[in-house]
Design goal:
By secondary structure, the chain is an alpha+beta fold. It is built from 7 helices and 19 strands. The radius of gyration is 22 Å and the shape is globular.
């Protein structure tokens, strides 16, 4: 009897792909792997399985195989496939998009901070997916639905990669699953750092007290392994601009990790950064911070760079984005303020 050792529906990278791992029974007779998986994977159609194989996402004993590979006893099979799309009807909406790059396989958007990526509870319209559906339809593109590869939070601005075919999504999804996609985020955080760079390690999972937020479980008894590397880019005394590199892709990872080390994102209401955590007691300073909060009415996090292997050309692609006006503006305010810092009481 075949045993599915690991069926993992990714909460991280937002439920966009699934992972299965099998050890083939000792009595298994030779059978094409696409037919084998169609039998043993619930609701997996053959075309979807073949797409995964062509994308290099079906591994047997750690090596990619073609759909016609014949399974053998004791083979260890690992599969990464795109998760079935949400059944919610996507209504095309004429919403402006900042498209950084586009070809037959992929599209890269510089997402505005106020935009939600996918329709969901409380946000059934006005999302990036609605905007993409309109864009595809209005430009005569034969794309039935945007194939999301990853997501970034509402309130986070920056680069987001979208596939235009299921095959491209499957190929790119494995890179996200394997954590080989290169991503750099810029973050304005509370406090100064003694060191110029460092690494935050700690399991990230839903808070046991508030399921709407994520928290860090340093003892590893809950949540999922998460690693964030950071480097100081610019110091402003009471706040610091840092660059974060994700080694893993957990939900709210940067936000939860930074709160854990007592450097929450500037104006992150969910994780305590919307309070004055560092600085003086003077009224003028409090008013200055309040003015900054009004300038950037969201958490100060921007997905600045993105690097990945193209699904068709197999060439490395790298993209960089400018900071949006609100983020750049608040940096300039802190830059000027830090030159004349008052004496801390």
């Amino acid at each position: 009897m075949i045993e599915d050792l690991d069926i993992e529906f990714q909460e991280d990278e937002q439920d966009l792909y699934e992972h299965h791992r099998f050890v083939v029974d000792k009595g298994q007779s030779p059978l094409r792997i696409d037919k084998f998986l169609q039998i043993h994977l619930k609701n997996a159609i053959r075309n979807k399985i073949q797409n995964a194989a062509h994308a290099g996402n079906i591994l047997v004993n750690d090596k990619p195989v073609k759909p016609n590979y014949k399974v053998r006893p004791n083979d260890v099979i690992s599969v990464v496939m795109s998760y079935p799309p949400n059944e919610t009807e996507i209504v095309p909406e004429n919403i402006p998009l900042d498209i950084v790059y586009e070809d037959a396989d992929i599209l890269i958007v510089n997402k505005s901070p106020e935009m939600v990526v996918h329709p969901g509870f409380g946000n059934w319209c006005g999302t990036l997916v609605n905007a993409l559906a309109y864009y595809f339809q209005n430009n005569g593109l034969d794309v039935p639905s945007p194939y999301l590869v990853h997501r970034i939070d509402k309130g986070t601005s920056g680069l987001l990669l979208v596939a235009k075919t299921e095959t491209a999504q499957t190929f790119l999804g494995k890179q996200f699953y394997d954590h080989t996609v290169e991503r750099k985020y810029w973050a304005l955080v509370w406090g100064d750092f003694q060191e110029d760079e460092g690494t935050i390690v700690g399991n990230v999972g839903r808070s046991l007290k508030d399921r709407k937020v994520m928290t860090v479980f340093p003892d590893g008894d809950y949540g999922k392994h998460a690693v964030t590397h950071y480097k100081v880019l610019e110091r402003f005394g009471y706040v610091t601009l840092i660059e974060c590199v994700l080694e893993t892709g957990r939900t709210h990872q940067i936000r939860a990790h930074l709160r854990y080390i007592k450097h929450p994102l500037f104006n992150d209401a969910t994780y305590g950064g919307d309070q004055i955590l560092k600085g003086t007691i003077y009224t003028k300073y409090k008013q200055f911070v309040q003015n900054c909060f009004e300038m950037i009415p969201r958490h100060a996090l921007h997905a600045k760079t993105l690097g990945f292997i193209h699904p068709t050309t197999k060439q490395k692609m790298n993209f960089d984005s400018e900071l949006p006006a609100d983020f750049a503006g608040v940096l300039e305010k802190w830059r000027n303020y830090s030159k004349v810092l008052p004496t801390e009481d």
